[in-house]
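B., you asked whether I could sanity-check this one before it goes into the benchmark set. Here's the sequence:
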Amino acid sequence: YNSYMKKYGILIILILIVGLLINIPVFNLSVNDVDGIPCEIKFSKKIYEGYPNRVSINGKVHIYKDRYRLNVWKVEAGAVTDEGVENVVLGVYNKSPFHQETEKRVFVYIVKDDELRPRYRASKLSLPFDDFLLYDVDGDGVMEIMTLDNIKGMNSISAYKLKKMTIYREYFSKSYEGLSELNVNDGLYVKAEGETREVVLSGDELLLK
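And here's what the prediction gave me:
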């Protein structure tokens, strides 16, 4: 019995050591920085962590901890401003500088000198949301931040624009029950009561076809 306990005690210690040393890859992203230089961005975490907070850009490692912890749950890339640069847009689960409640948020960055530089860190969007993605819904050449909103079980779709230091809800749909799986596939789509529907812009309203 003692040898059995010793054997498995050593195994548990080895597992803990491996967990402390190994970084588990979660998201990989290829973008151009503000100077047009290609960058490889990797988000990783330890085995015991819920979200990645370790970011490697072209091999340069940044660890976000304590009050700077990001807790990244989604990563998107695209130009969300008219500044002509590619943005890294993160879905994070944390606090913001001006809103100290932990919840889902969208943070926008640029990449410069192998670092993420904040472009916009939303204290709060207009509505609580379950998911987001980037899509140029109005065809102006700039990506909107599209969200799948959730208000007390009712869903809607919103399109946010980022200009200067302000993000605002430009287009939105009416409320539905049971929307899920917002995705892009040669167009913008969402599941409505189990059926895949295309999301299109008509005037200032987002409609389900």
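One thing to flag: Residues 156 and 175 are 5 Å apart (CA to CA). Otherwise nothing jumped out at me.
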